[in-house]
Design brief:
single chain, about 90 residues, Alpha-Beta Plaits, globular
């Protein structure tokens, strides 16, 4: 089953390669979407793909980012839009 998740990660998530590591993990899991820094110091990401892969990507970002320290994450689940063809870092 294909799903879409919109996530906001809070904590020490900027300036620690969070976006690059998220892109690498999402591509490894076969997901599409994007990740970007927000002006308030959070990181926003959209993941689309199979539910297991999307869940794994979010959990990996929460627990296993090498240099980040995620204090909280808000996730909203939705139907996939199909508008993405790859996973990218947005600036």
């Amino acid at each position: 089953m294909k799903v879409r998740a919109h996530a906001i990660f809070r904590g020490r998530v900027q300036g620690v390669f969070f976006r690059a590591n998220t892109e690498r993990k999402a591509r490894e899991l076969g997901l599409v979407g994007w990740v970007r820094n927000l002006a308030d110091g959070t990181v926003e990401a959209v993941f689309e793909g199979n539910k297991e892969g999307v869940s794994e990507a979010i959990e990996w970002c929460r627990e296993n980012q090498p240099y980040a320290k995620v204090s909280s994450v808000d996730v909203a689940w939705d139907d996939p839009t199909g508008q993405h063809t790859s996973f990218e870092v947005r600036r």
